[in-house]
Automatic annotation (TrEMBL):
Pfam families: FR47. One of its GO terms (molecular function) is acyltransferase activity, transferring groups other than amino-acyl groups. This is N-acetyltransferase domain-containing protein. PANTHER family: GLYCINE N-ACYLTRANSFERASE-LIKE PROTEIN (PTHR20958). InterPro entries: Acyl-CoA_N-acyltransferase, Acyl_CoA_acyltransferase, GCN5-like_dom, GNAT_dom. It comes from the Eukaryota. Residues 179-300 form the N-acetyltransferase domain.
Amino acid sequence: LFSYAIPHLLVFGMLREFTSREELKALLDKELEGDRREKPENNLLENTLQIALAGEFTTTKLEVYGYPERDPQYILFVESTNLQYPYIYVRKPLSGHNIELLNECARLLLTKYRSSIREHGKLLVVGDAEICEAFAQQLFVILGEKFETLEPCETGVFYMTAAQREAILSVDTDAPVGFTITPVDVDKDGETIHRLWKYGVNVDITKDRLRHLPSICARNEKGEVVGWAMSARFGQIANLYVLPEYRNNGLGKGIEVSLAKDYARRGLRVFKFVELSNKSVFDGSLRSPHWTLWMKEDEDNNDTKTPNLNYFRRFKQA
């Protein structure tokens, strides 16, 4: 259906939009050929497309693009709705960045979503430093207005290898004494979960994520919800939270492992973004046998590897 060869001469064109189920399935199959499936670069791509193909979560709109149109190297995902400003995630070429292509696809995508960005006055871009910087520069060019970065968020990407996904299925997930781990009761718990989520945008969107995407919660002996984890639209484990008075007893670990097992049983990749500033969770994930930190070779020393950082850059019109 389309070629993935890197062109010798850069020919800028239009974005290619993947709209039909057949196109999305063909994109998924092509990107996961051979050993590509287990590349951490494709964690989000696989889960996002699997969720889209399942067709259960339709509260927000997901649009998928490739650039260049004839030879897609950059794969772009956009989540949007009239209730939420656009969220953009960019999967860079597996062979590495081509800055000319990156700048052009950022320009084209921002042009397409210009009216929505203006309407909401905000934008979220998720990707590495080069991706976020390209979009920051093009924002000013396309909209002619100044956008400032809100709450810059630097994260490490933790994921489970095929062996870890297999192993997690046999891990004990018994809750600490006095607690139970159960499915989320959206009607009963949705308001509380949304209220305590610092990145929650709209309560109805939060409730539908809990209802249609993998989620889990923990309850005390009174049946009150005291901790939870849910899924983001792009398919990662997100919003793992335990009320402060119930922390440091293993409850958070039990919640996370329970949700990870659900992912693995569904055939999804298991991954999460952990803020570097959240040192206790970051260090705990490093020590855990269940998680692998996505690393890259140091450009100055091939014998040294460093974390492959991803950024959540929220832009707000100044």
